[in-house]
Write the structure tokens for this entry.
Amino acid sequence: MAHSFLYFWGLSLSLSLYLIPSAFTSHVYIVYLGHNQNKVPLLTSKHHLQLLSTVFASKEDAKQAMLYSYKHGFSGFSATLNSTQAQILSNAKGVISVFKSKTTHLHTTRSWDFLGLSMDYSTDHKGTIPLKWQQAYGGDVIVGVFDTGIWPDSHSFREEPGMGPVPRSWKGKCVAGEHFDPARACNRKLIGATYYLKGFERRYGKLNRTRSIEYRSPLDALGHGTHTASTAVGSIVKNVSFLEDGGFARGTARGGAPRARLAVYKVCWNINFDGRCTEADILAAFDDALHDGVHVISASFGLRPPLRAFSVSTASIGSFHAMQMGISVVFSAGNNGPDPSLVENVFPWSISVAVSTIDRTFPTRIILDGSLSFLGEGFVVHPITAELSGAGTYFFSGVCRTQSMKNVSADGKIILCFSNVGSVRREEAEAAARNTSATGLIFVEPLSRLFPDITILPFVQLDIIQGTKMAQYLSESIDPPIVQIFPSKTVLKRSPAPIVADFSSRGPSSISPDFLKPDISAPGINILAAWPPKTPPTLVQEDSRSVNWNFQSGTSMACPHVSGVVALLKSAYPDWSPAAIRSALMTTAYTIDTSNDQILAVGSIKASDPFDIGAGHINPIRAMDPGLVYDMKTQDYIIFLCNIGYNEDQIRSLVLHTHGNTNNGKNTYCFSDPSSSEAGRITSNANLNYPSITVLNLQRTTTITRTVHNVATGQGWKVAVYFVRVVNPHGVDVVVWPKLLIFSPIKQECTYYVTFIPNKISQGRYDFGEIIWSDGFHYVRSPLVVLVNTSTTAASAGFQATANI
Ligand SMILES: *[C@@H]1O[C@H](CO)[C@@H](O)[C@H](O)[C@H]1NC(C)=O
Ligand SMILES: *[C@@H]1O[C@H](CO)[C@@H](O)[C@H](O)[C@H]1NC(C)=O
Ligand SMILES: *[C@@H]1O[C@H](CO)[C@@H](O)[C@H](O)[C@H]1NC(C)=O
Ligand SMILES: *[C@@H]1O[C@H](CO)[C@@H](O)[C@H](O)[C@H]1NC(C)=O
Ligand SMILES: *[C@@H]1O[C@H](CO)[C@@H](O)[C@H](O)[C@H]1NC(C)=O
Ligand SMILES: *[C@@H]1O[C@H](CO)[C@@H](O)[C@H](O)[C@H]1NC(C)=O
């Protein structure tokens, strides 16, 4: 194992070395030392400086190079190094990994590609949270939001009436900075606010205000952080809407846990209205947040694929240490869909969230020549009557892009554009239409892109079937048709809902397909939440509108929905581990939509599968009473750490030993010889006690185990009996043993076995099933993800062996 680790590490290090064009280039590196063995942070920092000094001529040079010393939640530092220095440090005693600090990206589109929703919970759709719970729970829970900062003047961050004093456990700060006065900004709601800029400035140079607005403080210039924070924990604000004159999605805005406290960690900064967050800064935020006493961390950003190994990713390292301290970390899954395997933030100790719609739409009526009617989607405020024109009049080859513009003014015209002509995105088409001085734009897209965006120009999105009709009518008209566009409406209870968004990142994980990611899906399309009035709602410079509430779409918006629910669970069950909370969310998630059919996944317009939505769509009410949970403590992740190549010494320095949890290294034990392990053992993480079950490369009969914990509430319970129901994946027989689990006051934990028997010839395709344990009241559901591999000559022997059973 030690050997294979060296190989593993040597590989990743040399890869990064070869990528450096010149050996003399310096970068910000992160040097990770595992769990903080030292109780005194100052001593830890001293040690870091000593270590860093070994690769510099003087201590002064080392000090210059150092960005952060991470010393609270874990041990490590970031510094500007050249490749030689990085290599030397990677071989130093106690160093677990050395890797470059990369830039992560926010998981919203620039509000363009996909837009528009509301977090008005006034509908009683099953994905929403009852107000009585929101008011009962969350009060002592502190949610840390790692994002672009905060606009503290938003009503979302006012104290809720009757809110108690700041929890005594809180050790964080509210720091002063540009246009940010802690005395005014922070209160019993917004209890902390800090910012991290060193990594950003080393990478991108000093903050440049001529380039884009920014503040050297926790103040939010981009809106993203204000939006996500208000979605997770925003106070209740009545009668809000997008655009005063449009009044879209009017209703009450509130976060999932409106009584929870908010701690803001600004790690993402504005460059041309795009958020950039460096890993050196992110790790500093983790280090502080773990020390400050947050209970939940909500992070809506990620490193784009290719994904990096778990040992060289700050989000992985930070969330691992958070998990050990009982802190839940919720990440967005990324906006890379609908192609498979581009899911981000795939760590086994955190939650990765996919995005789907709610039941709200913004239908927009279009009438041609007073007779032909179409129904699109948009945010049109005022009625428009104009001539309809084809894109070919204004753009070469009909491609609606600024680069294709003919020198013809479209003043007073509505242009009809097709996204598939030249493969044009909404933002490009809208900019081009504005450039031609058009009065409005009708943009035709495939059925798989259902959601409207906010725009500057009046913009209606039409599906390809209606768009084709409109184009036909236009081409057959002798005189230009007169088009009337009516103001968009806000309509609730659209069925089916939810629908997984086309851009939501899909599984399986490209680095660890042996456990399911994403974990769960949550609303994140056209979410209405708080917004800085100084930030243009479209994030386009020319947009001069000022709004306090804005629509945003993305897994960025889905993530804080889950964080809010996690805060409620944390408050109701303070003892539950992050894994127990995740299990409660996953096993109670639903896969059936409002039309009583499988939730759809757009992008493909088919029934969704676990790679689209993980265990399903979040159901906060059921999550509060899951019946059973698949719990995991640090010890349960050790097999995973072994499988990804850590050796025992390293695992010992990663794992936090607390009282009652000291195994004297006994459990920090990897199988020393994988070949001698018991027959049928899977050299993957199939036995990780995850609430979803994945078996890859199923060649012959294979058995895995799971352990469930009874957490049923209600005083009178004595004995609980759970029966199993199985839905087989195609071509696989699944046998669960035992068939019933009996829990009693003295036996609250049961282990069961799942045997997978392949009964088809197949290679390299995924099939899905499920296991549901039920006591007649609770339904504890786990998705099954199986990849049968029986079709090669080698594997056909395995298939025959199976047939003999
Ligand atoms: C790296 O930096 C060290 C210390 O400044 C210096 O001695 C060494 O020559 C540098 N190596 C390379 C390859 O730039
Ligand atoms: C800021 O950005 C502008 C535009 O990109 C550039 O012209 C200017 O030189 C930059 N200023 C600094 C101090 O970097
Ligand atoms: C909500 O606000 C709008 C516009 O400001 C106003 O016309 C309306 O009366 C308000 N509704 C309620 C219920 O207060
Ligand atoms: C566009 O047309 C206007 C008026 O016809 C003319 O003045 C202008 O020079 C043209 N611009 C280009 C780039 O052709
Ligand atoms: C079109 O937009 C570009 C920037 O996107 C701008 O530079 C150009 O001047 C615009 N042209 C017209 C005719 O508005
Ligand atoms: C299927 O099995 C063959 C033979 O054992 C193996 O080479 C191949 O990698 C397997 N494919 C997958 C997808 O696991």
Summary: Residues 627 and 777 are 8 Å apart (CA to CA). Residues 2-19 form the longest helix (18 residues). The first strand starts at residue 26 and ends at 32.
